[in-house]
Amino acid sequence: MSAEPLRPDWVPPGAGGEFTTSIQRGVTLGTGVGVSSAPVVRRSEPTPEELLAGILARDRAVLARAITLVESNAPKHRSRADELVRLTLPHSGNAIRIGISGPPGVGKSTFIDAWGSRLVQKGHRVAVLAIDPSSSLNRGSILGDKTRMEELSRLEDAFIRPSPSSGALGGVARKTRETMYLCEAAGFDVILVETVGVGQSETAVRSMTDLFLLLQLAGSGDDLQGIKKGIMEIADLIAVTKADGENRQRAGLARATLAGAVMGLQPYTQGWKPPVLTCSSVTGDGLDTIWSEVLAFQAATRIGGVFEERRKIQIQEWVWSMAAEVLVDKFRRDPGVLASWETVKTSLERGDSTVPLALETILKAFRA
Ligand SMILES: Nc1nc2c(ncn2[C@@H]2O[C@H](COP(=O)(O)OP(=O)(O)O)[C@@H](O)[C@H]2O)c(=O)[nH]1
Ligand SMILES: [Mg+2]
């Protein structure tokens, strides 16, 4: 354009580059050069390096996008996701990872909202993740949890990510673990992984966290009915919830009963006897004590390298559990196995074969 640049209506005397001191003429569009015919510029997907830079800059939108990539089941996303996780690893590991479990209705979400908000007030940055392999079946509970973490979700220093949708537990667990690394790289120093107290999800959460907090309800009496011994055995900390109002005394009794039961158990973490406490997410009673026990746990397990050793073993076990999944998947899809399975199935039905024999046959078919 050859025309003189136009001047704005008014320019402060002696203005420099900080003001607009000239105006470009508008462009007259020729026929057929409308907006709709302009070439579509597709925004390219950010590279793993770009995502990492955004994560390290604590950009929440980038973090959310990176998590979506890691959660994707599409094979075309996998290599980028793997690369991102690899780049993230050196920047992760600086958080305390806390698993939180307990039966539905015990108050996990309410507890995380109240406790997490307190931790943010203390200067922490809190990320909340969830493992719920059944979530595709009851989507309602995810929505319920989001609204139940209302206070926390409003805080700048908190990040809440619901469970990755559906799929086998192994896949869901992998995504949650990788998401945990991303959150740590984004500067979150407290990671809370919530799980429902059903199925194998507690074991999955136990295997990716430093400390396992079990929430329990005061029962109808002083019995331990309905409390699975197995889950008490993997707990580092037990808290009886809803210790407020009329329920306060019953919670205290339940605490004493649980403490007695815990005494008879082998501690899951070497050198740490799991304390049993009471708390209320409504009054806030006991919430600070639970945090001080977390700090005491951290201090105790740092001694003798118990803390670091657990993380090392967790990584190694992860490899084995993933190997098991990959192999079983391969096995189930193997054409040789599928072919021999048809005949093996028939002989099993007829009573011509035993299970060990059947297994031997399909294993042979797999190796061939
Ligand atoms: N009185 C009282 N009620 C609570 C407390 N914590 C949770 N609740 C209630 O218990 C119900 C279940 O809580 P929720 O957090 O959804 O349980 P979750 O299924 O374990 O996540 C809700 O109606 C909560 O309002 C508490 O500390 N005191
Ligand atoms: Mg919940």
Summarize the amount of helix as a percent range.
40-55%
Radius of gyration: 28 Å
By helix and strand content, what is the structural category? alpha/beta
Strand order of the largest sheet: 3-2-4-1-5-6-7
Q: Give the SSE order as H and E letters.
A: HHHEHEHHEHEHEHEHEHHHH
How many β-strands, per DSSP?
7
Distance between the termini: 74 Å
CATH superfamily annotation of the largest domain: P-loop containing nucleotide triphosphate hydrolases
CATH level 1 class label of the largest domain = Alpha Beta
Please tally the helical runs, counting DSSP H or I stretches of 4 or more residues: 14
The CATH architecture of the largest domain is 3-Layer(aba) Sandwich
Q: Mind describing the biggest β-sheet?
A: 7 strands, parallel
Provide the β-strand percentage band.
Answer: 5-15%
Q: State the shape.
A: globular
Provide the list of bound ligands, each named once: guanosine-5'-diphosphate, magnesium ion
Which fold name fills CATH's third level, the topology of the largest domain? Rossmann fold
Number of domains: 3
Overall average pLDDT: 85
Low-confidence blocks of residues:
1-5
